[in-house]
What we know:
mainly beta; Jelly Rolls; Tachylectin-2, Chain A; 2 domains; eight-stranded mixed sheet; seven-stranded antiparallel sheet; 4% helix
Amino acid sequence: MPFTVVWFVGLCSLFLGYGVHVEASHRGFSHLQSQEQNTTATYQPYRTGYHFQPAKNWINDPNGPMIYKGIYHLFYQYNPYGAVWGNIVWAHATSTDLVNWVHHEFAIKPSIESDINGCWSGSATILHGGKPAILYTGIDPQNRQVQNLAFPKNLSDQFLREWIKSPQNPVMTPIDGINASSFRDPTTAWKGPDGRWRVIIGSKIDRLGKAILYRSKNFTHWVRAHHPLHSSNNTGMWECPDFFPVSVNSTVGLDTSVNGPSVKHVLKVSLDDNKHDCYTIGAYDLKKDKYVPDNGSIDNSSGLRYDYGKFYASKTFFDSSKNRRILLGWINESDSEQDDIKKGWSGIHAIPRNIWLDKTGKQLVQWPIEEIETLRGKPVDWFSTEKKAGSEFEVLAADASQILEVLDITAAQVDVEVLFDLPTLEKAENLDPSWNDPLLLCSEKGASVRGSLGPFGLLALATEGLEEQTAIFFRIFKGQDRYVVLMCSDQSRSSLRQDLDKTTYGAFLDVDPLHEGLSLRSLIDHSIVESFGGNGKACIIARVYPKLAINDNAHLYVFNNGTENVRLSKLKAWSMKKAHIIY
Length: 583
Ligand code: DQQ
């Protein structure tokens, strides 16, 4: 029988948390930038099985993702000489499914005056006739940020192994009042009705974050517009902007230049201040060449985020082979630089996500690409076990003493989906109107704090005695005129190690729990718990380093620590195979 009901004594005390705050960073440590460690010499329990990561060293932003002649291309910021940020080049990998990857030679590395001090982030655009072009930020000898252009050397090579830099480089420079150290990360370009290309570059003036707009007829000669595409006060530097259309009445993705009455636009900015990827939904006014967020779409760091955990410097691309828009993002570490040097590596990428506009038109929905399911092993389904066959639900009792262990899976490398069904919400706690910060609320009401409807959810990467556990859970509150669902990821007991960032993350989830139930999917991969609540309406990535709950010592549980019964109506899990990543 693949599941057992485990009776647990003293569950509440085992839930009690602790935390030390250590913020992992993306700063330059010149003395460390070339310090290598032999990764094979040390035991590596935190390497992931099916997330994208290079063999060693530092990795950050995904760059220039695209599909060309049926092959997916991923470039990324990489330090060839060490496990901290520095010496940045564009590393390059290709794939036929966005899951298994083959690495190639670095695509772009410092070689010309306008990128001699680094080849920073940028994007790919497919030009007329299917020819790809890359715009990227170069750091010049004066350490100014400038924009450069590169084209493939050989268009008949579907792996696009060699790139030639344009003799016109740099094609955009920080003149006329642009701050030379805040001028970076060109987006994929789009074409306006006048036939000219447009691109935006992240920038700021004092605390005013901006997307500087450039236009070009030939992709080489770029002219700055008089006004930015958009700007917002008190948001600081906008890194890695992304601007793209979404369909209002379908989940299919759109090519970046599409516009029209059934289209809305999304502007995402990566806020350097707090390392959050925030987005708004709005309209692209073609006459004014300006983006205007919809009323109610909050234009600062308290607005919508792709992910409420660790996820930064993301970028989307239009996958013309499957008519979908794919989101890729960087996950940094929660340990210290010294730990990264010891491990010999730092940074991984999130599982690529398909994204589309929710039917409310108010937010995006994200879901792991379907190809990741090719790594799933045999399903373990609670409701097809002998004991449960034919039952519609399992009651998770209110006395907080009953938790279910999901057995017969590799709990350190698994994909799990659960659905909670809530026939009545009458007993939900009242939401104090001042409880408007989900992160704070999740920190104050962690997995160990009993409520009435919640906390209930999953305990991932847990030890048998629950000394270590990453809890992903929901709580339901009674708000002024509706029920409010809180989704949390509580890392306070994720590891017995003390020297880690164990910040608890949280988000409000815009669902109707009474009629839809509450779904949770978590992709668990040794040191990552990537969770999707409400069928992808809120996502939270936790980066954790258990000391004991590693490999075969990791367990997975479903729990309810509220005073009300919760019904579990779906519990399916798949052990995940390793992705093939050829270095
Ligand atoms: N990372 C790049 C920059 C970008 C930042 C440098 C965001 O181009 O602004 O590695 O993580």
